[in-house]
């Protein structure tokens, strides 16, 4: 499980500085020169994003993700070819991600399960962290909020599935059908049996008996 506590290890000033430098470089690349930014286009896909540990490794080795001008400077330039504009962006290759993460974790003593090493932030998250007085604390806050929203989404889907099963069972019962069918279907869809059984009981519907676990066949001799 990913650690969400930035104080789970001692955060040195060197690490704080490295995080700020990595965020600044990454944000500069995502802002780019103008529209049709290939880095920003790629970053819309979660699989293309880099963790802060990866970017720290690049910046610490005197690298950068963007070598082009600011939008203001670009506006004052003569026409630049599409190929030249694309060359300003350096998208980290996925093949080297693990090595970069490991190098940063070793250099700064970062636990392998910390967000710096595991979470690849979105553009919105990066902008929020860049504008924060404590980027690491902001990262933890964002991650916790996302986890809460995911739990709420899962809970809502589970409740919807149960309500749908109860409604289907009522309709079947009204026309002489077997309410066990929607019960079984809801279980197959991932509904919690205890919650589903309670919902059926509250609705005055019969709860199908739990099937005994099937014995494993004896190994062939």
What pattern of helices and strands is seen along the backbone? HHHHHHHHHHH
Largest sheet: none
Shape summary: elongated
What count of helical segments does DSSP give?
Answer: 11
Q: Which regions are unreliable across 5 or more consecutive residues at pLDDT < 50?
A: 1-7
Got a strand count?
0
What integer value in Å does the Rg equal?
26 Å
Oligomeric grouping of the chains: single chain
Structural class: mainly alpha
Strand content: under 5%
How many structural domains can be distinguished in the coordinates?
A: 2
Averaged pLDDT, please? 87
State the separation between the terminal residues, measured CA to CA. 42 Å
Task: Describe the secondary-structure layout.
Blueprint: H1 13-31, H2 38-43, H3 52-60, H4 71-75, H5 82-86, H6 97-108, H7 115-118, H8 123-130, H9 135-174, H10 180-188, H11 193-202
What does this structure look like?
This protein is mostly helical. It folds into 2 domains: 13-131, no CATH class; 145-203. It has 11 helices and no strands. The protein has helices at residues 13-31, 38-43, 52-60, 71-75, 82-86, 97-108, 115-118, 123-130, 135-174, 180-188, 193-202. Helix 3 packs across helix 6 (97-108) and helix 8 (123-130) packs antiparallel against helix 9.
């Amino acid at each position: 499980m990913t650690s969400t506590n930035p104080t789970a290890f001692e955060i040195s000033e060197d690490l704080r500085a490295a995080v700020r430098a990595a965020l600044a470089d990454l944000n500069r690349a995502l802002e780019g020169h103008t529209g049709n930014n290939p880095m920003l286009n790629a970053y819309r896909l979660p699989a293309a994003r880099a963790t802060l540990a990866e970017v720290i490794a690049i910046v610490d080795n005197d690298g950068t993700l963007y070598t082009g001008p600011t939008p203001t400077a670009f506006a004052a330039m003569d026409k630049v070819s599409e190929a030249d504009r694309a060359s300003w962006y350096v998208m980290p290759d996925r093949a080297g991600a693990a090595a970069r993460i490991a190098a940063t974790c070793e250099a700064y003593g970062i636990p392998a399960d910390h967000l710096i090493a595991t979470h690849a932030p979105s553009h919105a998250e990066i902008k929020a962290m860049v504008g924060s007085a404590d980027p690491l604390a902001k990262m933890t806050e964002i991650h916790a909020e996302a986890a809460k929203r995911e739990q709420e989404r899962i809970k809502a889907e589970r409740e919807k599935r149960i309500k749908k099963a109860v409604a289907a069972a009522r309709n079947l019962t009204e026309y002489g059908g077997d309410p066990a069918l929607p019960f079984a279907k809801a279980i197959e869809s991932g509904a919690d049996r205890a919650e589903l059984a309670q919902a059926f009981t509250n609705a005055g519907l019969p709860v199908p008996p739990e099937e005994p676990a099937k014995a494993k066949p004896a190994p062939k001799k």
